[in-house]
UniProtKB/TrEMBL annotation:
This is HAUS augmin-like complex subunit 1. Residues 143-174, 224-275 form a coiled coil. It holds the Pfam family HAUS1. GO terms for cellular component: cytosol; HAUS complex; microtubule; spindle. InterPro entries: HAUS1.
């Protein structure tokens, strides 16, 4: 109980917390002792340091366990490979063939085996290897095309970004800044608006009194619209009358002379009609076949 504070004696919860912290510190001290060969460096002991060291120790133990697991798997795989090699009756023949290979043949065999492992092909079939290489080339070409498109898009985005930055600079320039006396002008406009609003009832009363004194009724917007519509109707009638008058264009202004001229035109029209009929009859007689007498 020497490691407990005086307050822990009278508070069970505080005592449990301090016991847990002491247990964690013992674990951290032992872990640091193993990592630093018994020479633990001095450091400040507080709750934040304890939390950080506990997290670090947990990660370290997890990494150690993972490393041990990988080591066991590699050792087991190597042992199985050696067992299979020793049990293989063709191992001696394969070793002799490998030893009899020329340097070029050994390099080719190593390249083929490396390519098979790289392409995840357990059996070094040249057709499958070629197909996989073609697939990789197609994938590489597609990735290159995508990379080019991304580069073009990046250039466009950079161009737009530069344009936006220039626009921001222009907007932040003095040309777009408010005048220094804007607040004063706004206050002045508000004061004038309030003054005019206060004078508006008085002005309305004056207009009403003047209208009553002169006897002229007040004109409203509806009256103006009505008069405007009447004016438009009158203009339409004027246009119709002008069209009617244009029909008599060229006649004398005197009524009797106009009637005589109209009668002369009618006589001329009848003569032209008779002339047309006679010409048509002559044309028909000339074109019709003549009958021979029996």
């Amino acid at each position: 109980m020497a490691h407990l504070s005086p307050s822990a004696i009278f508070s069970p919860s505080v005592a449990r917390q301090q016991l847990a912290a002491a247990k964690d510190w013992n674990y951290i001290d032992s872990w640091l002792s193993t990592k630093f060969s018994g020479k633990t460096p001095p450091f400040e002991r507080n709750n934040e340091t304890l939390k950080a060291l506990l997290a670090l120790a947990a990660l370290n133990e997890s990494a150690d366990e993972e490393r041990d697991l990988f080591a066991k798997v590699e050792s087991k795989a190597l042992q199985d490979l050696r067992t299979n090699t020793e049990a293989d009756p063709n191992a001696g023949i394969l070793n002799q063939l490998e030893g009899a290979l020329t340097p070029e043949g050994a390099a080719s065999l190593n390249a083929l085996s490396f390519l098979s492992v790289l392409l995840n092909q357990p059996v070094a079939d040249t057709e499958n290897l070629g197909r996989r290489i073609i697939d990789l080339q197609v994938t590489s070409y597609s990735l290159d095309q995508a990379s080019d498109r991304i580069s073009i898009l990046e250039k466009q985005l950079n161009t737009e970004l530069d344009r936006i930055n220039n626009l921001i600079k222009d907007l932040e320039s003095d040309a777009y800044q408010c005048p220094p006396n804007l607040e004063k002008q706004t206050t002045d406009y508000q004061r004038r608006t309030k003054a005019l609003a206060a004078q508006l009832p008085d002005l309305k009363d004056r207009v009403a009194s003047l209208s009553a004194a002169t006897g002229i009724p007040g004109t409203t917007v509806e009256d103006v619209k009505t008069e405007e519509q009447k004016f438009k109707d009158m203009m339409a009638k004027v246009n119709v009358l002008e069209d009617e008058v244009k029909k008599y264009h060229g006649l004398p202004q005197d009524t009797d002379l106009a009637r005589l001229e109209l009668e002369g035109l009618r006589v001329e029209l009848r003569d032209l009609t008779r002339q047309r009929d006679s010409m048509f009859e002559g044309l028909v007689e000339r074109e019709s076949p003549k009958k021979t007498r029996p």
